[in-house]
Amino acid sequence: MEHLVQKPFPENFLWGAATAAYQVEGAIEEDGKGISVQDSKNFSNYFHDTTVTSDHYHRFREDIALMKTLGLKSYRFSIAWTRIYPDGETLNPAGVSFYNQLIDELIKNNIEPLVTLYHFDHPQSLQENFGGWYSEQMITHFLTFAVTCFHAFGDRVRWFMTICESNNVVLYPDLIGGVPAGIDVEVWRFQVSRVMALANARVIQSCRKLLPQAKIGPCIGYAIAYPATSAPQDVMAALNEDEFRTFYPLDLLCLGRQNPTVVNFFACRGLDIRLSPTELEEIKGANPDFIAFNYYQSDVAKACPDESEEAQPGFNQEGKKGGFVYPRFPGLYAGDSNPYLERNDWDWEIDPVGLRIACRKLFDRYQLPLMITENGLGARDTLANGEINDAYRIDYLQKHVEQMQLAISDGVPLLGYYPWSFIDLMSTSNGYNKRYGFVYVDREDSDIKTLTRYKKASFYWYQRLISSNGALL
Ligand code: BG6
After folding, report:
1. Which Pfam families match (predicted)?
2. With 60 as the cut, is the pLDDT of residue 8 above it?
3. Residue 177: what pLDDT?
4. Residues in contact with ligand 1 (CB, 6 Å cut-off)
5. Which of 25, 112, 165, 349 is catalytic?
């Protein structure tokens, strides 16, 4: 449906861009920082070295000057827990001071900070001592860390996100989770969802008490699921994927209720995932102000009979089309490719219309304002004579922004848009082979090179878009 009258982007729309600490900062052992679970990860199949990444820790003033030139209204970054509490227990004032300087520099340049409290990088010591998010002890530690951030930064930060993509943490345990030895992965998944939901609720409640003016919400990774065909079994499979991957965690975080289909599915397999009434009450009492969601692609789901062999999703590590391993979850759904969509070299299917569908589905179900906190195209960029012509990225972003405007015209309250990423950073699953930024960083996986920053063609495109408040589409 085209709109006769398209609504403009709201005046105070947060045109932003995003990063996360372990992917961009480097300096992992400087000024008292402790080692995080991301710093200690080492994958044999792809680059994952957090030591230097894009050296933002040392170059944040230069990077913020670039943000100002770009015209960003807002910048989403995460606070490395291990700078504030290196071992999860002892406060490190030098870490607080770093983020104070970063926030001051943003404010000085009229850029509104959006702070992610947790982006996959808790202290390694908490993982070793009690298994990280598998243990309820994590709730107290996370709360202490969050309250320290509220006290230290809450006079200048108005927007907070609690936990980034709790649903993907449990979907990809090796990449961003961490299952303690000897624990069944399914049991771990539900324990982590429960602990994260309780931690999320307590952090929101503390925020309300300490910073009544602030806005806070959870963040989810949302790949909407299309049925592979109109066969009712495939339609059911798509519903299963949406409910298990996205609505189960969001219902819990936003409504304090557990999706009964999911509860029943696991009960039939001997796993009782019910939370106590007191826990659900506590979660219900901590409604978020908004839902942040990250959108890159859509999925296709087809029926997966009970007797099928299970397969976990397998990342395409080579960046050659066709390398992605589609998951199979017997009794629920199996993934498949979408013949109607183009894909990037890592098989992430490009689906701008899916973004509008995602906005509509989320608003319809939760009636909360939405924020798109990641969206972008991972690609190999080429630096030639100091320039990067990433026309493919402009095309991707432009088509997604058009769909955002249609979603706004549909009546969805969208607060802001934070493309991933402001600057090239270490991709979680593919290092520097796969870039996302508006700003190019001169380095490769195996060679740190000069780390010089270059503006890509997409930088100038986004600059024009922001200055026209989206009118130049
Ligand atoms: C998001 C994560 O899910 O996906 C980011 O929050 C990540 O940390 C992004 O970088 C893109 O994924 P990848 O694996 O291409 O870096």
Report:
1. Glyco_hydro_1
2. yes
3. 80
4. 20, 23, 164-165, 168, 221, 294, 374, 378, 420, 427-430, 434
5. 165
Domain map (residue ranges) of the chain? 14-467
Q: Are 445 and 50 in contact (CB under 8 A)?
A: no
Is the pLDDT at 1 greater than 90? The verdict is no
Q: Which of the four pLDDT bands, split at 50, 70 and 90, describes residue 174? A: confident
CA distance to 18, 63, 149, 316, 425, per residue, from 444 (Å): 21, 19, 33, 19, 11
CA dihedral 185, 260, 364, 16 (to 10 degrees): -20
Per-residue pLDDT at 178: 86
| Cα gap 351→192, rounded to integer Å | 30
User: Global pTM?
Assistant: 0.97
Whole-number Å distance between alpha carbons of 211 and 154 = 7
Give the number of the atom of ligand 1 that is nearest the alpha carbon of residue 120.
8
ipTM over 0.95: yes
Query: Domain 14-467, what architecture?
Result: Alpha-Beta Barrel (3.20)
> Residue 171 pLDDT more than 70?
yes
440 within 8 A of 456, measured Cβ to Cβ:
yes
Nearest to 417 by CA among 342, 357, 473, 470: 470
